[in-house]
Amino acid sequence: MNVGLLGFGTVGSHFYLLAQQQPGVKVKAVLSRRPRPEVSCLVTADVARILSDPDIDTVVEAMGGLHPAYEYITAAMEAGKHVITANKQVVCTYYNELLALAEKTGVALRCTAAVGGGIPWLTSLRRAARMDKMVSVEGIVNGTTNFMLSAMVRRGASFADALHEAQLLGYAEADPSADVEGYDARRKLVLSANLAFGVSLMEEDIPCVGITNIQPRDVAVVRDKGLTFKLMAYACREARGISAYVAPVLVQQHTTEANVEDTGNILTLVGEHIGRQSFLGAGAGGWPTASNVLADCLAVAAGERGYYTRDCTPCFVKNELLDGQWFYRFKGEYYFRQCTAEAAFSTYAVHLMEDPEALMAKVR
Ligand SMILES: NC(=O)c1ccc[n+]([C@@H]2O[C@H](COP(=O)([O-])OP(=O)(O)OC[C@H]3O[C@@H](n4cnc5c(N)ncnc54)[C@H](OP(=O)(O)O)[C@@H]3O)[C@@H](O)[C@H]2O)c1
User: Fold this and answer.
1) What is the pLDDT of residues 235-292, one digit of tens each?
2) Model pTM greater than 0.85?
3) CATH no., domain 2-118+286-310
4) Catalytic-role residue among 88, 188, 230, 362
5) Where are the beta strands (DSSP E) in 97-177?
């Protein structure tokens, strides 16, 4: 397999090093806007040199962002090259377009590293969904917010201090909104739910609340009740479609989820016959993430294609049947409420109009 590698940051550079030790996977060219003296193959800032090279059969996209990643991925597929990406944003946003193009051109499109970093979650989910009917998928899927919540719970850090620390350590970006507002987790939920349930969900359809309104006093209040905050993504099959949300969740302190610390991730599937299976590990980082990219390369070299199918049903998210207990802080007062997820998010939207610092969390 001859690879054209687009992007030489955290994931790209680690993939390059891993591929050097892997017989059968050769990086032939690297797209980079700056010189890379450590790279022994062609380094170019001109993507056309990679896309028009007939010897390159596979493109690994490790640039991130929507554009020009989407244009480069589609051009690579049009040129008959397999595409492997770690970019959840581009796959989630252009899900239907990319699947249709992969089918039309007959190339592989894989994105295992896009959810769970180094955890082989999507491939395991695919395997499970082929043999069993999936009931639900859920997890702690954003390492940055999990690191921040760990700092807030363990050391009593404020949201601002926890964010500052995450930025200093390189876990959070200068603009942290995709992480702290829950959008990154929501994209990973879309990719997981689409695969689990054979649907095509719209990102914007899924109600999403991040961790920005969690304050030290909230952490102390729930600790006294034996609970701890985690940002979780959840989707399940319901009679009338798919229920899904991203929100802070209060988990019992003794549970596995409560003890997933720092940048760790945990992803859980529930199948009708196989029951509950959880996958725990490094949700980010150069080596783990690049390992999943390399695993995709090896799968493609072995003749496998993508694991998503195009005959998925476009599906609206319906949360009106998903009943549960929710926790709120509104104008300084805490209260619990038993209601559907739809009602829970509507209530919170109303609260926010009067109290922009209001809090909501699901009780597990
Ligand atoms: N880091 C992780 O742990 C992790 C985990 C799972 C998934 N991912 C996903 O992997 C992808 C890459 O993440 P990363 O952490 O490796 O990002 P990163 O460290 O910021 O690296 C991105 C690289 O792409 C290059 N790049 C961006 N736009 C480019 C363009 N138009 N032309 C040429 N090069 C361009 C950047 O070049 P410059 O250096 O010139 O800016 C940089 O070298 C993202 O989609 C991310 O969501 C990352």
Assistant:
1) 999 988 999 999 999 999 999 999 999 999 999 999 999 999 999 999 888 999 999 9
2) yes
3) 3.40.50.720
4) 188
5) 109-110, 134-140
Distance 123 CA to ligand 1 centre (A): 23
> Do 344 and 326 form a contact (C-beta atoms < 8 A)?
yes
State the distance between the two ends of the chain, measured CA to CA, in whole angstroms.
Answer: 46
| Nearest-angstrom CA–CA distance, 191 and 54 | 31
Judge: domain 121-283+319-363, CATH 3.30.360.10: yes
Catalytic site includes residue 88: no
Whether the CB of 222 sits within 6 Å of ligand 1:
no
Please choose from 42, 46, 63, 192 the residue to mutate so as to test ligand 1's pocket, defined by most ligand atoms within 8 A of CB.
Answer: 63
- Beta strand 333-340 with 42-44 is unpaired
Asked whether 188 and 114 are in contact (CB, 8 A), the reply is yes
Main-chain dihedrals φ then ψ at residue 326, nearest 5 degrees: -125, 155
